[in-house]
Specification:
The complex is a heterodimer of chains A (216) and B (362). With 216 residues, chain A is an alpha/beta fold. Chain A contains seven helices and eight strands; from the N terminus they run E-H-E-H-E-H-E-H-E-H-E-H-E-H-E. Chain A has an eight-stranded parallel beta sheet with strand order 3-2-4-1-5-6-7-8. In chain A, strand 7, helix 7 and strand 8 form a beta-alpha-beta unit. Chain B has helices at residues 16-26, 41-50, 64-76, 87-103, 129-134, 150-167, 177-181, 227-248, 269-282, 300-309, 322-330, 350-361, and strands spanning 9-15, 31-34, 57-60, 81-85, 108-113, 143-146, 171-176, 183-189, 251-254, 261-264, 287-292, 294-296, 312-317, 337-342. In chain B, strands 3-2-4-5-7-6-12 form a seven-stranded mixed beta sheet, with helices on both faces. Chain B is globular. In chain B, 51% of the residues are buried. The chains are: A alpha/beta (216), B alpha/beta (362). The A-B interface holds A 8-9, 69-71, 97, 123, 125-128, 130, 153-157, 215-216 and B 10-15, 18, 22, 36-39, 41-42, 45, 49, 122-123, 181-185, 188.
Chain lengths: 216, 362
């Protein structure tokens, strides 16, 4: 069970979606849970069907089941509350920045389940998490975090050097926080060049970009 | 407290709303007044996170009427003040911005358009063009920049403060929900590192000296006793506006020299149009691309020149002809035929534009 949290637009959903697909392709039973309660189902809505076809159980609101998206508050999906009781792997995609991390309080067992790992996704191209000091400060506001994911990129302009620089910065922040860097993500083409581990020794997770097909 | 929000320049990856907050910061904005509305919320969120680090301020007001009027208050006190809103919030903002027009105050407002009428969708549209350019019970004495990407959101938000304080007309940056929430890379920079000089703010009220003796008295009025009084003031304003319009107006264009048909759009839709025109030209179809960057004032000479040479304009927008209406007024008398691709409240892709052009070409 893994929960992905982090700064707004840090790449939480992209990492969570890729992780769910990776696990499903290795033959595991996977549940992907949309825990964005500010803009629920906006994010995953356009690719929900595709993910379902890949055999992933996507736990998220259907747009037509909802109203008042975005600003009027919404009803917490009942299935989300019990997400950790689902059988199989559970990937929680937790939306909307610092406040989003508190959403975990709504999930039954999140505070006590020893199997739940909470990973903070960090992109050093985002100015508020651009340096070691800023990342350390930021992650400390999130509550319990079990590891960092180096998701440093510049969209279409991402280079291997940029990812490696991210690995160095995120690695140092993780050292100061006393937690591991679980992985460095890289688009498949770049991941092939980097190899199985980045320059700082963190495992590399090759990813595809699914989020450009989504809204927001 | 760090001196400058950004030293030199930095390549970053952000959402459009964050871009606006950073741009306001480096433009020297002193205070944001705001009331939450999607899709502009993160402008406030990021401003409230960033502002305290650099000695800037924020006030959340009880609604958009109040956010607009407090922005005016900040400006009167000589602060670079701004606000941001969308949709129904923009509607409420028209009353204070109309007052800013009357008093010639350099307010800055960032609009992230959402679907309309009324609360409609929180997502996206280009349906706030009429309101942002000509809203309020006035004459549209304002400046409106329509941005198309994150780099422009950054550049033009900085520019909006300078334009407002230089010319003393309320200035708007017109974005939309897609630009607000979309993520892309851009270069953020310290304006000084690019040779951009920030226009200094100065108080309108409470200046030193005795009014009428040491300095001319400050007269800021939005109420007049008789028609002639108002008429005289407005005539002066129109003259000022007409004089600055050619300096302020901006546009971008290509492929006009041999084009029968010119695709005209603004804002985020022009990204699709640009891609479509490039693709069509590569395929041997002679089409041109024209995009007004300022929707108020419009680049009148460039539009009339283009409308005199081209046979057809294809106006493309995520509204039911709000840009087209502005263009028709400017191009009045030019022989150009006005064709359209309107998708109010819905995004437009390059494929949409290509197929519409092919349909027209037959």
């Amino acid at each position: 069970m893994e929960a992905y949290i982090g700064e707004y637009a840090s790449g939480k959903s992209e990492v969570a979606v890729n992780r769910a697909i990776f696990l499903a392709r290795s033959g595991r039973r996977v549940n992907l849970v949309d825990l964005d309660i500010v803009e629920p189902c906006y994010t995953l809505r356009p690719i929900k069907k595709k993910l379902t076809e890949m055999g992933i159980n996507v736990v998220a609101w259907e747009t037509r089941e909802m109203m008042g998206l975005g600003e009027t508050g919404c009803i917490f999906h009942p299935a989300n509350r019990w997400a950790l009781k689902l059988s199989g792997d559970v990937i929680l995609d937790i939306g909307y920045g610092v406040e989003g991390a508190k959403t975990l309080n709504l999930v039954e067992g999140a505070a006590s389940d020893p199997d739940l790992k909470i990973f903070a996704v960090v992109n050093v191209a985002r100015p508020m998490t651009g340096s070691v000091e800023e990342i350390v400060q930021y992650v400390r506001t999130l509550g319990k975090v079990d590891g960092l994911i180096n998701n440093s990129h510049l969209g279409d302009e991402t280079t291997m050097e940029f990812i490696q620089e991210g690995a160095r910065i995120v690695g140092e922040a993780a050292r100061q926080l006393g937690i591991p860097v679980v992985a460095t993500t890289a688009l498949e083409e770049l991941a092939r060049v980097i190899g199985t581990h980045d320059a700082a020794g963190h495992p590399v997770w090759p990813i595809k970009r699914y989020m450009p097909q989504t809204l927001w | 407290m760090p001196d400058k929000p950004i030293e030199g320049e930095k390549r970053v990856f952000m959402t459009g709303n964050e871009v606006v907050a950073w741009a306001a910061l480096v433009a020297g904005a002193d205070i944001m007044y705001g009331y939450p509305i999607t899709p502009q919320n993160e402008i406030m969120h990021y401003w409230t996170r960033l502002a305290p680090k650099f000695g800037r301020e924020f006030l959340q007001t009880e609604d958009e009427l109040s956010a607009g009027f407090t922005t005016i208050g900040g400006v009167l006190a000589g602060r670079k003040a701004f606000t941001a809103t969308a949709g129904p919030g923009n509607t409420l903002m028209q009353e204070p911005m109309s007052m800013a027009e009357a008093m010639r105050l350099p307010t800055v407002v960032v609009i992230q358009q959402r679907g309309g009428p009324s609360t409609a969708t929180v997502i996206y549209s280009q349906q706030e063009v009429t309101m942002t350019t000509l809203g309020g019970n006035g004459e549209g004495l304002r400046i409106v920049y329509s941005t198309a990407n994150h780099q422009e959101l950054f550049d033009y938000t900085i520019k909006a403060f300078n334009t407002a304080w230089k010319y003393r007309f309320p200035t708007f940056v017109l974005g939309d929900g897609y630009q607000a929430k979309m993520r892309e890379s851009l270069t953020i920079y310290d304006p000084a590192s690019r040779g951009i000089e920030l226009v200094e703010a100065e108080p309108f009220l409470g200046k030193p000296g005795v009014p009428g003796v040491d300095r001319p008295p400050t007269q800021l009025r939005n109420t007049y006793n008789v028609e002639e009084e108002l008429y005289e003031v407005l005539e002066g304003y129109f003259k000022d506006y007409e004089k600055i319009a050619p300096e302020v107006a901006e546009h971008e264009a290509f492929g006009l020299e041999d084009a029968d048909l010119v695709v005209v759009s603004h804002g985020v839709v022009s990204r699709a149009c640009k891609a479509a025109v490039k693709e069509l030209r590569e395929g041997g179809i002679k089409v041109g691309y024209f995009r007004p960057i300022t929707l108020r004032p419009l680049p009148v000479d460039a539009i009339r020149e283009t409308a005199s040479k081209a046979r057809q304009f294809l106006v493309v927008e995520s509204a039911n002809g709000q840009l087209a209406r502005l263009l028709k007024e400017v191009a009045y008398g030019c022989p150009v035929e006005m064709l359209s691709l309107f998708k109010p409240g819905v995004g437009i892709t390059a494929e949409d534009v290509v197929s519409r052009v092919k349909e027209i070409a037959g």
